[in-house]
Amino acid sequence: MVEERREIDIPDKEMGWLEGRANGGWYTGYIVYKVENTGAKSEKIGLIPARVLIQAPTESVLITWVKRAS
Length: 70
Prior knowledge:
- By secondary structure, the protein is mainly beta.
- Helices cover 0% and strands 51% of the residues.
- The chain starts with 15 loop residues before the first strand and ends with a strand.
C-alpha cells in the first residue's frame, strides 16, 4: 500500500479542491494460486476475490493530482 499527501493553498474567500485521477484501470476478478501438496492425489487451487488498480505502463506515477478552483 502506498500513501501520498499533497497540500495546496487556496486564497481567502475562494473555493478550491484537489482531485486525484488514477493512471490505470481496475482488474476485478480472482487471484488464483496453487495449494501446496496436501497429500491428496489431485491438485488443488485457491481463489481470492480481488479488485486491484493496475498502473498504466506508460505512466511513472499512480495518481495525477488536479487542482480545481471556482
